[in-house]
Amino acid sequence: MKKLLLFAFAIFLTIKMNADPGDTIFVQTLTFDDITKRRGTWIFPDESIEFRKILMYYTLKCDPATTQDGYACGEWDYLTYNFVYNHTGNFDSTLLSHPYFTINSEAPEEFSYSNIPTYSYYNIWQYFPFYDNVISENDFLIGNNSEQIIHPFKSENKSSRAQYLWLASELTNAGISSGDIHKIKFDVQSVGSDLKYLTIKLKNSSLTELSEIDYENDGFVTVYQMNTSLTPGLNEFCFLNPFNWDGTSSIAVEITFENAEIGLNSIV
Question: Which pTM was predicted?
Fold first, then answer.
């Protein structure tokens, strides 16, 4: 068996105490002169110094100075094994081990993985409600149609969540009374990109205004959810199920969508 020569250098990166952050302390252990030396004792910084990282550098040396055979590079000169011990005093020591791999800080015995990208398919049902036998209906206009906005359908973002509040007084002044609401219309003045999974939710709300810290987070009723292409003018969204307004609360309206790519905004 041929002789294995190991030459090691340990680098310690300190973060405080006697050295400034980022300083490096070098401790040289085995050298090229240590042809047959297997172990030794070297002075390291004391425990008053804390370290962020320890690096060990070593070189396998092919050299005629190898004393175990007559060859500069033997069959074992390209292998090396490192053993780390936790010395408890005198010559007693405990061999430390490290897992071959970790997954979320855990070291399971086995872990399944794939060498090629994987993916999953999810089926989502989308419904297309359409009222084809209307006996009568009433339209109500809320607001004065004086401001252009892009928030509901802001396709320059891949996904969006916009929330609005219709006050009870606004609904009443528009002539709406308590009962079922079956549709909603948006006046689109400029058409942008298609909207995937466009979702509209409504809720009877006790809020009188919305803010970054005070808005509705749950209790909504989903009234519309499907991939949608807008057109210029009034766009009608028929509800999957009517929304019942209690006649006294505000109505919170939440509009979301999820696109795969960024696109163009629609102006409402």
Answer: 0.57
